Amino acid sequence: MTIHEVARRAGVSPMTVSRVTHGVENVRDATRELVLKAIRELNYSPNPAAQSLAGARNTRIALIYSNPSVAYLSELLVGALEKASRTAAQLVVERWDNFKPAMERAAARKLSQNVAGVILPPPLCESVAISSELASAAIPVVAVATGRPRADVCCVRIDDFRAASEMTGYLVSLGHARIGFIKGHPNQTASAQRFAGFQSACEAAGLAVNPTYVEQGYFSYRSGLEAAERLLARKRAPTAIFASNDDMAAAVISVAHRRGLDVPRDLSVVGFDDTLTATTVWPELTTIRQPIAAMADAALALLLRQIRDKRAGLVFEPVDHLFAHELVKRDSAAPPREG
Amino acid sequence: MTIHEVARRAGVSPMTVSRVTHGVENVRDATRELVLKAIRELNYSPNPAAQSLAGARNTRIALIYSNPSVAYLSELLVGALEKASRTAAQLVVERWDNFKPAMERAAARKLSQNVAGVILPPPLCESVAISSELASAAIPVVAVATGRPRADVCCVRIDDFRAASEMTGYLVSLGHARIGFIKGHPNQTASAQRFAGFQSACEAAGLAVNPTYVEQGYFSYRSGLEAAERLLARKRAPTAIFASNDDMAAAVISVAHRRGLDVPRDLSVVGFDDTLTATTVWPELTTIRQPIAAMADAALALLLRQIRDKRAGLVFEPVDHLFAHELVKRDSAAPPREG
DNA sequence: TTGCTTTATGATAGCGCTACCAATACGCTT
DNA sequence: AAGCGTATTGGTAGCGCTATCATAAAGCAA
């Protein structure tokens, strides 16, 4: 099924078909309808290899990550790779663990010679060294899951503040008044926003945020374990714990079980992200669903559009794409025993 | 960096460069060296889009799965998608959950019109309906993680029997004599092989396999929970439990904790697959590492070669690619308390 | 209507690579 | 040294698509 067959069937030239499939050109409505009909009838879809060969010369996109949560990363990769294979973008995946700013700068400079765009998941999207270097080379960047680091950078993310405040509201509505919180890694803005959402919802509910119920975590299972031990060792332990991601929430459940606490009857535990950890542990986690794969897909699409526009000499309006999140109620949260 | 520049630098024709990069042709050693040198100096790598356009016309590959373990699937997908994006194969991912044999047959027939090859992870690779339908349409198939369903089908897998028997030997060497076993889903041959490996190693160690220490599981966390409850409710409970995958092993740990058992001091628990579950739970699982992503990569490569050979009219020798596994010792297994 | 601008469509060329066949070079026999 | 077969190399065409420019059609003012 080639563009020529579609063109012949619609009685137009291949070029017109190409214009229709790309949506944005000047094509008369009648012609467009004709082409669309032919496409539907022939069940045509363009050959991405040919598109990439003919069109944008060198659409190599880098996805750089560092110290990732495995579950998060694999979802991100699946989304990005899937999109890449459908659009014939060539995805280059690299890992930059524990780079110093100078190294980041050098690596980013080198990268900017080899790729047409970069996807930056946390925590790398927070690096000033990287984004300034890429910006000065005029390489388009999409940041994943962070507030906009620069005015000229696109973002895909969810509203961490609102999501966290909804989750807190849910715990409050169940009747919890002593809610513990485990913060995420301080090198990511999402951590701060989740905490801010928690605080704001507590205040809205007339609950004082007791600082001794707030523990620093680092998004890892191990850090969750330690934070949970401290939280549950208090004489008046919280009746619910809100962990800033699923791995830490799973750790909280584990600690609770070892202390003979029943989850959720003695302790409610909620997480964030809805990675596969959430449904692997028992009881399954109440958490915030974040459409990670869809976000990766969107990030790549955004990048591709940006590169295209840049090549065409158009100015590209940076986008801040906010995805809808969802509060997923499973079995790890319930009303507190005492009330 | 195009093939022409390499050719010019090496003083040969582009065609010769192409032959060198594909390895398998008649090229004089001196020429090959020249080309290889030029490739290295210019840091050339072929443009996959151009390759797929010029070469194999329509290399669409399907990856069909059903009822997967999420962790397993995502690793598989990452491997396959990554390879696909490097080779410009177009990967089509579909999910066929709970199809009846007639539906499988119909779906496979339809599929065989649209794709040039199929990757079949478990449990679909066990389906006679699917493989016979694809075979009769002469569509190359690679089965993942299973014994060869047909003589003409390629496989990528590890030696489940040996891996399971090594793991059992390890438990025995730690001093365990009462070892519980949780079987995998009966619809997968790997389950039977893992159990057989367990049995064989027990016998080799002079241990009788007590049938009341063997429970049926289905690879899910939930089934692991139930099997573990039954196992640990015995008056003389096992001192070690070998679960046929990581999810079930994680479930065993959870049950053990709730019963106040310390892992590994009161109970050793080992898993299989080394999915990310293994390092998320605490204590981290001793398990068998299976290079899932590399296997997916190899499966795709095998398929591509097969399709290529088929188009060239060559006969393709079906391959059974056995990957090396690895016994990963972490913290969930230790000598039994009593001795 | 004419003459102009704007909009819609078509023709041509080429992206980087490989299949196919033609042309050499080489090794060996007589 | 000539003749033959095989091993190695090169030339040509084209994969399916889009950029670019050329052309045709339409819109509009005078």
Question: Which term fits the overall shape of chain A?
Answer: elongated
Strand order of the largest sheet of chain A: 2-1-3-4-5-11
The average pLDDT score of chain A comes to 89
Report how far apart the termini of chain A are: 66 Å
What structural class do you assign from the helix and strand content of chain A?
Answer: alpha/beta
Model regions low in confidence, pLDDT < 50 over at least 5 residues of chain A = none
Largest sheet of chain A: 6 strands, parallel
Secondary structure tally, helices of chain A:
13
Helix content of chain A: 40-55%
Q: Please give the radius of gyration of chain A in angstroms.
A: 24 Å
* Count of beta strands of chain A: 12
Order of helices and strands of chain A: HHHHEHEHEHEEHEHEHEHEHEHEE
- Oligomeric state of the chains? homodimer
User: Strand-residue fraction of chain A?
Assistant: 5-15%
Largest interface: A-B, 37 and 37 residues
In short:
The first copy, chain A, has 339 residues and is of the alpha/beta class. Chain A is built from 13 helices and 12 strands. Helix content of chain A is 47%, strand content 15%.
Characterize the structure shown:
Two copies of one chain form a homodimer. In chain A, helix 1 (3-10) packs across helix 2 (14-22) and helix 5 (70-87) crosses helix 13. Chain A has a six-stranded parallel β-sheet with strand order 2-1-3-4-5-11, with helices on both faces. Chain A is elongated, with a radius of gyration of 24 Å. Chain A contains 13 helices and twelve strands. The first copy, chain A, has helices at 3-10, 14-22, 29-42, 48-54, 70-87, 101-114, 128-136, 160-174, 189-204, 221-233, 246-258, 277-280, 292-311; strands at 60-65, 90-95, 117-120, 141-144, 154-158, 179-183, 214-216, 240-243, 268-270, 287-289, 320-323, 326-328. The first copy, chain A, starts with a helix and ends in an 11-residue tail after the last strand. In chain A, strand 3, helix 7 and strand 4 (141-144) form a beta-alpha-beta unit. Chain A is of the alpha/beta class. The A-B interface holds A 47-50, 52-53, 70-71, 74-75, 77-78, 81-82, 84-86, 88, 90-91, 93, 221-222, 225, 247, 250-251, 254, 257-258, 260, 276-277, 279-282 and B 47-50, 52-53, 70-71, 74-75, 77-78, 81-82, 84-86, 88, 90-91, 93, 221-222, 225, 247, 250-251, 254, 257-258, 260, 276-277, 279-282. The structure holds a DNA duplex (30 and 30 nucleotides).
